[in-house]
Design a protein that fits this description.
The complex is a heterodimer of chains A (about 325) and B (about 280). Chain A is built from 15 helices and no strands. Chain A has about 325 residues and is mainly alpha-helical. Classes of the chains: A mainly alpha (about 325), B mainly alpha (about 280). Chains A and B meet through helix 2, helix 3, helix 5, helix 6 and helix 7 of A and helix 1, helix 4, helix 6, helix 7 and helix 9 of B.
């Protein structure tokens, strides 16, 4: 059967069967000028249903009373009651401070280790391809397993890390890392950095491939050492990708309480209580959906503000 | 001059190897230690002096976990949720990503940006309303409901990652097919998707791993054995029954095995896709 280019001016002759043949109908539909929108329709509808609608619903909830375990209270509008309560809630302020520590320390550690790994891998030394795969593995492991692996290794009685530290003389006795308020956050940050630093390695490696080697040759001739080259060529050339990586990680760290939920559940006391965890517990344990909604709205606004300021700052520096 | 440069190259090569080997040990060490714990006998785990190289091995932890706990059900549920998530993303996301990659139309940039920004929405902010809505429509505590909830953060990711692969597939073959009289949809299914096959597989694997690993949504949106996934189940076992370390380690090993196998198979293409999406984003 020879193929003919059918157009609106030259439509194919149809039999009764062809008029209802679904394959043919879709084929013709794909020639209309709404085709690209039709392709987007299923995903757009789904995202509207599972992201936009719930988000708007959630914002709306933050202005209402909604406690699943106390239905007698009803679901009336309470305006800014939850937000006012938040200002006077000491746990909120502790969680806000902890979130700042949690996010900045994790990012700093992940970025540093990620950059070092990427620079070393970018030298393309023989045999390092295998090491690259091994280094990326933690990023793909589930939080639940990553958390328990480290909980096992840091265990106050059976932990191998305690044993190694004692044997090398760095520690005099076994330590309960997650039970001590002064070390719990630091231990959690190390686990988090172990889990997510490969993300920086991945992105920085991709960015390094895009830097012209001529720049380094020129710098060599000018007598710039490796550290000067890093500061004057590599980091400035990576600015966009570092900005993108930092924003994506900040979003991840602020939004997901998973790892802390598994490792410490906010404890001991409130030493590792962060905003996302507090909001989740308020919803999951107390069923106070209104207050949890208000907490997450504040989190969202802080995140948007950060992203906006960060993008502006990195753009200003570029000019 | 030349001599000092090659000398310093040697120094930096050595430093690179040292750093990479150290990092690889730090990255894989916990997995190896967990595996060792899972095949140790109980007396070698709970001991006064650490056993680094066990001489006795056992698979009892695996057998006990598989036969005496609900772990098989949990893993099955996870498999169902993961497959459904991938299928939903595949059916709705592939065409969207093709549309973004191949057509220029009014609102394209804004829509793509919207698909990126939805990733910023806090999970907790969405979980609460999703809980309420799913309870109303009867999807709470169902594998399908959980899979739909997962698309909220995985579908935008899927679309962006796959768009990178579609972008790098040459447009000429498609044009040739069109000149030969193929419809747009015909060209998409017969030419473009087969070319971007590897990318499509890698994107699906990435989404599958994320769905398989997910904990928070599953904790909130499942309440019973019928739909509970393994991360929630494992965590509950730790809390309720004081799961012994050996069995916990065995559970961890069972559940990361598929992740590591899939990652090993498609890692090169997947890594390219993640970085391409992020570089452009």
């Amino acid at each position: 059967m020879s193929r003919v280019l059918y157009t609106a001016a030259n439509p194919p002759a149809r039999s009764a069967w062809e008029a209802i043949n679904p394959m043919r109908m879709i084929g013709e539909l794909s020639e209309t000028r709404y085709w690209m929108y039709l392709l987007l329709l299923p995903s757009a509808l789904l995202i509207t249903a599972v992201v936009l609608y719930p988000t708007l619903y959630g914002i709306q909830l933050s202005f209402r009373e909604m406690r699943l375990n106390r239905p007698a209270l009803g679901t009336d509008w309470v305006l800014f009651k939850h937000y006012a309560r938040m200002l006077a809630d000491p746990i909120f302020w502790t969680a806000l401070r902890n979130t700042a520590v949690w996010v900045t320390s994790s990012i700093a550690l992940e970025f540093t280790v990620g950059l070092i790994a990427a620079l070393a891998l970018n030298r393309n030394l023989p045999g390092t391809k295998v090491l690259a795969v091994l280094i990326l593995v933690p990023y793909f492991l589930p939080n639940v397993v990553a958390g328990h692996m480290w909980a096992l290794m840091l265990d106050p009685r059976l932990g191998v890390i305690n044993d190694l530290l004692v044997k090398t003389g760095l520690l005099t006795g076994y330590k309960a890392w997650f039970a001590d308020p002064s070390t719990a956050m630091a231990a959690a940050i190390i686990v988090e950095a172990w889990h997510s630093f490969p993300f920086f390695t991945l992105l920085i490696m991709a960015g390094l491939k895009g830097i012209p080697t001529d720049l380094y040759k020129a710098a060599d001739i000018d007598g710039a050492g490796p550290f000067a080259q890093l500061r004057l060529i590599t980091l400035p050339m990576l600015k966009t990708i570092i900005a993108a990586a930092v924003i994506l990680r900040v979003i991840g760290l602020v939004n997901s309480p998973d790892l802390l939920l598994i490792l410490t559940n906010g404890g001991p006391g409130r030493a590792t209580q962060v905003l996302s965890l507090y909001a989740f517990q308020t919803a999951y344990k107390d069923f106070n959906f209104g207050y949890a909604g208000a907490l997450s709205v504040v989190m969202f606004i802080l995140l948007m503000g950060f992203a906006w300021a960060y993008i502006r700052l990195s753009k200003v520096n570029q000019d | 001059m030349t001599q000092t440069r090659s000398g310093s190259k040697l120094v930096w090569d050595t430093v690179s190897y040292a750093v990479l080997i150290l990092l690889a040990i730090v990255c894989v060490g916990p997995i190896v230690w967990t595996f060792l714990t899972s095949i140790k006998v109980e007396e070698d785990i709970v001991t006064r002096s650490m056993v680094y190289f066990p001489t006795r091995f056992t698979f009892e932890n695996y057998v006990k976990l598989w036969s005496q706990s609900s772990y098989p059900t949990l893993v099955t549920n996870s498999l169902i949720v993961t497959s459904m998530t991938v299928l939903i993303c595949l059916f709705t996301g592939t065409v969207a990503s093709y549309s973004f990659s191949r057509f220029n139309f009014a609102g394209r940039t804004q829509l793509m940006l919207a698909y990126l920004i939805v990733r910023m929405f806090p999970a907790v902010l969405m979980i609460i309303p999703l809980f309420i809505v799913m309870r109303q429509v009867g999807l709470l505590d169902s594998t399908f409901g959980l899979a739909v909830a997962y698309t909220s953060f995985l579908l935008p990711l899927f679309v962006w990652m796959l768009k990178g692969f579609f972008d790098s597939a040459p447009k000429e073959l498609e044009s040739a097919a069109r000149i030969d009289g193929s419809t747009r949809i015909g060209a998409m299914f017969r030419i473009v998707i087969p070319i971007a096959r590897n990318g499509l597989v890698a994107t699906c694997v990435f989404v599958a791993i994320a769905a398989w690993n997910e904990y928070l949504f599953a904790l909130m949106l499942t309440t019973s054995q019928g739909s509970r996934t393994w991360p929630v189940g494992l965590q509950l076992m730790v809390g309720e029954f004081q799961l012994p370390w050996g069995m916990l380690a065995a559970g961890g090993m069972i559940s990361i095995l598929p992740v590591i196998i899939l990652f090993a198979i498609v890692q090169r293409v997947m890594v390219a896709g993640i970085t391409a999406g992020a570089v452009k984003g």
